[in-house]
Amino acid sequence: MSQRGGIAPYLQAAPLALVFLLFLVIPLAIIVMVSFWTYTDYSIQPAFEVQNYLDVFDRCIVRLPTLCTTFRTYLSTLTFCAIVWALTLVIGFTVAYFLAFEVRSPTVQSLLFLVCTIPFWTSNVIRMISWIPLLGRSGLVNQALIGLGLIDQPIEWLLYSSFSVTITFVHLFTFFMVVPIYNSMLRIDRSLIEAARDAGASGWQILWNVIVPLSKTGIAIGSIFVITIVMGDFITIGLMGGQQIASVGKTIQTEISYLQFPVAAANAVVLLGTVLLIIVGLTRVVDIRREL
Amino acid sequence: MANGNLELIQLTKRYGETVAVDAIDLKVPAGTYCCFLGPSGCGKSSTMRMIAGHEVVSSGDIVLGAQNVTDLPPAKRGTAMMFQSYALFPHLSVLDNVAFSLKMKGVEKTERYRKAGAVMELVDLTKYASRMPAQLSGGQQQRVALARALVTDPGILLLDEPLSALDPFLRLRVRTELKRLQRELGISFLHVTHGQDEAMALADLVVIMKDGRIEQAGTPQEVFHRPRTEFVARFMGGHNVVTLDGRPLTIRADRVRLGGGEAGADRSLSGEIRGVEYQGATVTVVLAVPDAGEITAVIPEERFVASPAALGETRAIHWSRADEYAFA
């Protein structure tokens, strides 16, 4: 054995550290830096001012309990996030449970799992807009309902609404829940289920007392995926909300399109902080490292 | 729970075309330590899993006490199973593992902890109550599994190769412990193993299985002294199975002596010594005897020292004809 210490371990860690530095730390540092700069309609000036942050929360505190634009945007984004999280969790858990426990043959299991990945062979945007002919005013759903005589007028809230945004989010991101949960479920020793049954546990009791606690890490990882994606999203909300629904991501996008980089950066830092808080909260509840 | 007799009637398990357990009949009186013994794939585990209710019975019946339990769910049978890998819940503390079945029954928290505590005392686990299973040694985990099975007050405890995961030294200690526990509780233990020494040491009733059938069921002495088939004799060990005078018979290895015997009462043969193994109190000598095949002699150490044998020598052996036993 060579002696521990010296330069060798640092060299071994260097490539990955470099990647992190280049693609994560430096860009983040730049965003934080720019968020303190000043800007006018046509220029950006290096500076160190907190004005951008004050602008983000402009009169937010004094006007309470009336919500300012920023708070309303965050509330709407968080609401979407919560609803989408709950739906993807329930659907994702169910699919993962079916794959891991109801399908007995490992070959069929892998096959069905691959089938789940097929939608990912097309781009997110295409999968989004393919909802439009389905949900539109004269879309498939409305026509079918009218044809069946269930409604006289087409339902307006199907498309370009919170409904269409939610359904698209769920459609796009449920698989991000399925994968980690399925992965933790596969690691559950089957004899534990038998032991629980031997102890008199019913199906629901086994689910609640054995399977859910042992899938916790998968649930947490899937939740992080879904929450971070939905919190930062602007394309889905824009496209499926008919550019009418506010989200933090869309705010940042709009500010960038007006070349207001410093305030966009400040907004991004606030968003990052919010998402980090949620994730820290999650890791407090579940020890994720057990899975990694 | 009914502390009853267990009876298997024409119990059969088929997996597609393969017959794992082939119409076996067996009676296990209440309070018996019963060992299912056999090579892997003989159907002993399937039989136990059917009794536990974790495997669907293809045909036949399982009667426990006065109740036909063939189609009852596991927890309604009055059986409890201890799994081979222990199957402890990794996310629950020792106390919660032991109290698990009580929680499933809806027993209130203080009451179930009190009861679990009492069982844990029985197996000397009290001081580990708050540990997680991963923080325990193999022997401690085994005791948790035992306590978890016993907390339901089962009429029969089913143990699936309970000692196989332990090191040899611990295995002996736990073996003694299991026997003591069974005596104290007065319930039947049904213990699946592939180790004949384990079965001999523990069982009141040894059930030897082969290819899904019961080869022989009886006390350890019966099985050892009067093996019904060649397979039993070979599997129990300590026997030579030889064909002499045109019929197969067995002679216990410890009854074979070196040197020539008396003409009438003894049977004398001779062969080349192929192996000499020193075992401590005894010495095992293996000879290749023409016409009879390999014969093993287990000789007390002092006798061997008095007349030692070396590899390659040709030596006479003998045994009393009264010790020969022909299969029924």
Architecture blueprint of SSEs:
The complex is a heterodimer of chains A (292) and B (328).
Chain A: H1 8-34, E1 38-39, E2 44-45, H2 51-56, H3 69-102, H4 106-117, H5 124-129, H6 132-135, H7 140-147, H8 162-186, H9 190-198, H10 203-214, H11 216-232, H12 235-240, H13 248-257, H14 261-285
Chain B: E1 6-15, E2 18-28, E3 33-37, H1 44-52, E4 59-64, E5 67-68, E6 79-82, H2 94-98, H3 100-104, H4 109-122, H5 138-150, E7 156-160, H6 168-185, E8 188-193, H7 196-202, E9 205-210, E10 213-218, H8 220-225, H9 230-236, E11 239-244, E12 247-252, E13 257-258, E14 266-278, E15 282-289, E16 293-300, H10 301-306, E17 314-320, E18 325-326
Parallel strand pairs in B: 3-8, 3-9, 6-7, 7-8
Antiparallel strand pairs in B: 1-2, 1-4, 4-5, 9-10, 11-12, 12-18, 13-17, 14-15, 14-17, 15-16
